[in-house]
Amino acid sequence: MKKMKKYIIASVLALSTLFVAQAQGSKSTIYPTALELNQAKATWFNSNNAAGMILTPLSDFGTLSVGYDWKVGDYKLQQEGNLKTLDINTSGSRPLGKARVWGEFSYQNITQEDTKFNTLRLTLDPDMPYILADSRLSYFKKQTYNMTMKAATPVLWDLVAFGATANYYTKSGAKQIDPRCESFEYGIEVKPSAVFTFGDHSAGLTFMYKNAFDRYSPLNSNNQQDQPAFNLRGVGTFVDVVVGSFGGLGTYYYKTNRLGGALQYGYQGLNAKVLAEGYYTYQVIDVFHSPSKPRRMGSTIQHVAGGNLQTVLEGDSFTNKITLDGYMRSTDGIEYIQMIDATYEVQQWVTIAKFIRSKYDFTGLSLKYDLYKDSGAGYDWMAGIQGQYTDRLDTYILPESSFKAENVYGEIYGKKNFMVGNNSIVVGLSAGYNYNIAGEHIYNGPFPDSEVIRELYEKDLAILSANYYQFGINLKAIFPMGEKSTIYVAASCKYLRSDEELHNYSYGTDTEGKNFWWNLNPGPQLTPSSRTFANFSIGFTF
Amino acid sequence: MKKYILIAIVLLTAISCEQFKQVAEIEEVTPISANVKISAAGISADTPLPSSYTVRFINYGENFEISKTTDASGNVSTSDLIPGVYTVTATGESAGGGFTYYFSGSLTNINILTGGQNFNIEVASSKAGALILKEIYFNGSTGYYFKDQFYEIYNNSEEVQYADGMGIGNILPTQASTATYNWEVPDGKPENYIYLASIWQVPGDGNDFPVKPGESIVIAQIAQNHTAIKPTSPVDLSGAEFETFIVNQSVNPDNPNAHNMILAFDKGVFGTQWLVTVFGGAYAIFMPDKEIDPNGWVKPQGKSDQAYPIPIDCVLDAVEIVNNATKINQKRMPTNLDAGATFTGATYNCNSVSRKIRETKADGRHIYMDTNNSSDDFQLNSVAMVRRNNPGVPSWNTWYKK
Question: By C-alpha distance, which of B307, B374, B299 is closest to B334?
Answer without folding.
Answer: B374
